[in-house]
User: What shape does this take?
Amino acid sequence: MTTTAPAPLAPTPLGHAAPRPVPDGALRAAAPADRWHPVCALDDLVAERGAAALVDGVQVALFRLHDGTVRAVDHRDPASGANVMARGLVGTRGAVPTVAGPLYKQVFDLTTGRCLDDPALALGVHEVQVAGGTVLVRVHGGPPAGADGR
Assistant: This one.
């Protein structure tokens, strides 16, 4: 039996159309390693607040910014090793959107993942697109080594 994945969702302007359900099995049928995964409805994300999601075995922190863009970074705080980045404080340094780790307060660029306080630290950054009111994430790299998710 041959199963084909549906055509990719066409991006729409934010708030332009009602969310369209994306059947989970529809995107799994394609099964490439770096496919887009539906995570949630855009309206489920609160501006300037984080949300955690498990995407293809990777813990991801999602942030909807005031300008309507959505960013996705690793949920694991590289300073503490704890999966807490979605609980970080969202802000800016100049025009750079940032999140401060909730434990040690290192500030990370949400676009590049680099730490603005300690160049030895960085977060992995994942691609995000919004299509039909659904947030889709394509993770880079596989799940972290170790059974404890670290």
